[in-house]
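Thread amino acids onto this structure.
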């Protein structure tokens, strides 16, 4: 249940018509860890187990990628939407992100809203060292595949999409959410739950790239990131430092690589990239 119908009035020149539009649902999900409130995420309901697992991975809450705790339903609202879940996580599986965390509100527009200090945004880890190259002529087909799975967007026009691929262009998973970072978390979480995260080499997103999307890919060890729209300056800076090949403006058979372009190649001479 990703959309809900709402009545409205549509004004067109001198005409006014009553309409019913499908709008993307945005609801709060409270995540409890060991029966204690940990965070609240504003998300589109659906694939909540993937969202939770991906979020806890990118935030460094769970320190073992092979550990998949059950996401236990604690409460639903009157519409049947899950509002509270709980995860039982042993102390030895809790990472530094848990011990260093404060109350975190993850809203649909910003993956880091609720951080209380700039130091909350720091991270530790090696840069990504990937020798394989991406054939840029495969990119348009990857975005076509992701777009074909944007069922909620086709209804409401209000969701973002993210998808994961191998370097041959095979799609591993595609997810939608009202938040760009939520869609990425859902993709990462689903692949973790299926034991296939290592197969993911490229993530595509339907909107722009901000630095929190780069960090989520870095935490998932994904070396390639591509977006339909623009990157922020900080996203490019982080991608350069973390070893992620970042591509943006991937549309109309074109793409611009802003970071670590040495991993790209073009096998089809009749395909233009800018």
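Threaded sequence (274 positions):
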């Amino acid at each position: 249940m990703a959309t809900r119908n709402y009545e409205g009035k549509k004004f067109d020149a001198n005409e006014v018509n009553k309409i019913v539009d499908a709008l993307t649902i945005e609801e709060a999900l409270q995540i409890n860890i060991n029966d204690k409130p940990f965070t609240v995420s504003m998300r589109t309901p659906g694939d909540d187990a993937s969202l939770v697992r991906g979020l806890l991975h990118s935030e460094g809450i769970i320190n073992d990628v092979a550990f998949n705790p059950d996401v236990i339903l604690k409460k639903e609202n009157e519409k049947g939407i899950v509002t509270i879940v709980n995860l039982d996580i042993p102390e030895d599986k809790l990472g530094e992100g848990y011990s260093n965390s404060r109350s975190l509100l993850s809203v649909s527009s910003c993956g880091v809203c609720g951080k209380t200090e700039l130091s909350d945004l720091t991270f530790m880890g090696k840069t990504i060292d990937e020798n394989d190259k991406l054939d840029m002529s495969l990119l348009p087909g990857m975005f076509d595949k992701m777009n074909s799975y944007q069922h909620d967007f086709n209804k409401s026009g209000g969701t973002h999409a993210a998808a994961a691929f191998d370097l041959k262009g095979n799609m591993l998973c595609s997810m939608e959410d009202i938040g760009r970072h939520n869609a990425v978390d859902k993709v990462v979480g689903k692949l973790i739950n299926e034991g296939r995260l290592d197969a993911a080499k490229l993530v595509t997103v339907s909107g722009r790239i901000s630095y929190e999307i780069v960090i989520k890919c870095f935490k998932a060890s994904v070396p390639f990131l591509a977006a339909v729209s623009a990157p922020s300056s900080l996203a490019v800076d982080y991608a350069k430092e973390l070893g992620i090949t970042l591509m943006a403006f991937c549309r109309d058979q074109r793409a611009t690589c802003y970071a670590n372009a040495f991993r790209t190649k073009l096998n089809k001479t009749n395909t233009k990239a800018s």
